[in-house]
């Protein structure tokens, strides 16, 4: 690599070419720029593919024995999952949230008309097609068949079919964003174009 020193006004000052000299021994001032020229012949992006980089791997038991690891620091400091009180508190909060979600979900019945209101998105109307737990993410989910193609799926996620609908008409939403009521299907003029 070649190193070149430039003044704040981008005027070339000198090459930094002495391998023995410390950086502080050069006339570097505030605002100066050190330009690095790679002469190694490495192509751009050559080292971006990390699958080609040889890796060092340590067994879990060897890592557990090290006194200078992040894990040992977390254990000594009782942080993260190593803080038993905090973990019990988080678990209780998650159970509370799941219980609240379950109560909200139980108040929503399959076949009901609903409106979905998510902060920062326009409200969408549809029909409830599924209520319950799902494999794709934890917690209770409401499967909605929208009146128009504003969804993300056809009622299936990761190959599991939860309900049937046309592609892009299905979505899964958390119960707190659902309002069940007399929401008549709106005519969007989509059938007129066919």
Automatic annotation (TrEMBL):
PANTHER family: DYNACTIN 1-RELATED MICROTUBULE-BINDING, TUBULIN-FOLDING COFACTOR B. Residues 81-109 form a coiled coil. It comes from the Eukaryota. Residues 132-174 form the CAP-Gly domain. Signal peptide: none annotated. This is Tubulin folding cofactor B. It holds the Pfam family Ubiquitin_2. It is found in: Cytoplasm. The gene is TBCB. The keyword Cytoplasm applies. SUPFAM superfamilies: Cap-Gly domain, Ubiquitin-like. CDD domains: Ubl_TBCB (cd01789). Keywords: Chaperone, Coiled coil, Cytoplasm. GO terms for molecular function: alpha-tubulin binding; microtubule plus-end binding. Belongs to the TBCB family. One of its GO terms (biological process) is tubulin complex assembly. GO terms for cellular component: cell cortex; cytosol; microtubule plus-end; nucleus.
